[in-house]
Amino acid sequence: MKVLVAVKRVADANVKVRPKSDGSGADLNNVKMAINPFCEIAVEEAVRMKEAGTATEIIAVSIGDKSCQEQIRTSLALGADRGIQVEADNSIQPLAIAKLLKAVVDKEQPDLIILGKQSIDGDNNQTGQMLAALAGLGQGTFASEITVVDGKLNVTREIDGGLQTITLSLPAVVTTDLRLNEPRYASLPNIMKAKKKPLDVFTAEDLGVDVAPRLTTVKVEPPAERAAGIKVESVAELVDKLKNEAKVI
Ligand code: AMP
């Protein structure tokens, strides 16, 4: 079983990102970058499938400028066998990413494509769904468990109010949720080995994909500062404030 995993380069989850002064986007100068956490879970799941003998080959693909090769190399250190970078501007939008991934799927013919449920920078939660639609494949989004049974994929999905288990024919698209697994750290020997693993580079033109943007970012601004809390002396005062100041009761 060949598994394709999509990994995105994003600002590290522990970094507090600030908007640029002109409001045109996030200021990523000197910011520590990492694999999107949900994509790390996707890589981990593929590696576990390989360790269990279900997967035979794992391909890590990232779309972006040359710097995203760093996240491909990390995926290779975590256990992916080879990497693909599709060169693109980092501001590329989910529809164009889904079209490029579809072109890679056509080229590689994987049995399973695993993506994160969402990228923590744009919070789009769109790419996996659009890829499945463009490629005409079944999708299991927000997966908290996946198992291969008799050549089909059982996916347990985290949905409002509980869990839903569906069965998909392969090939299929899966997007990962937080509880699917706990990703490992790459070991130093594996980081060294990853430097020698193959990494192919394609352009959107090579893949014949139109990546023209369909959305315009109007403004990026920080969330409003939270007002400081206050202490009340009594329940009566609390009720009075909720009623007359906050007007919520
Ligand atoms: P999004 O739809 O932007 O929230 O992203 C959902 C998932 O799509 C991510 O977790 C990745 O698996 C994949 N994805 C999004 N952008 C990229 C990218 N530039 N390169 C590779 N995969 C991506």
Describe this protein's structure.
The protein is an alpha/beta fold and 249 residues long. The chain has a single domain (2-219), classed as Rossmann fold, CATH 3.40.50.620. Helix content is 28%, strand content 29%. The protein has 7 helices and 13 strands. It has helices spanning 37-51, 69-78, 94-108, 127-135, 188-194, 204-207, 235-244, and strands at 2-6, 9-11, 18-19, 26-27, 33-35, 57-64, 82-87, 112-116, 138-149, 152-159, 162-169, 172-176, 199-203. It has a 9-stranded mixed β-sheet with strand order 11-10-9-12-8-1-6-7-13, sandwiched between helices. Strands 2-5 form a two-stranded antiparallel sheet. A two-stranded antiparallel sheet has the order 3-4. A hairpin with a 2-residue loop joins strand 10 and strand 11. The longest helix is centred in the N-terminal third of the chain and has 15 residues, at 37-51. Residues 6-8, 36, 38-39, 42, 62-64, 94, 97, 115-116, 118-119, 122, 124-128 line the site of adenosine monophosphate. Belongs to the ETF beta-subunit/FixA family. Residues 23-211 form the Electron transfer flavoprotein alpha/beta-subunit N-terminal domain. It comes from marine gamma proteobacterium HTCC2143. This is Electron transfer flavoprotein subunit beta. GO terms for molecular function: electron transfer activity.
Provide the fold topology.
Blueprint (H helix, E strand, L loop, with lengths): L1 E5 L2 E3 L6 E2 L6 E2 L5 E3 L1 H15 L5 E8 L4 H10 L3 E6 L6 H15 L3 E5 L10 H9 L2 E12 L2 E8 L2 E8 L2 E5 L11 H7 L4 E5 H4 L27 H10 L5
Parallel strand pairs: 1-6, 1-8, 6-7, 7-13, 8-12, 9-12
Antiparallel strand pairs: 2-5, 3-4, 9-10, 10-11
The site of adenosine monophosphate has 22 residues, from helix 1, strand 6, helix 3, strand 8 and helix 4.
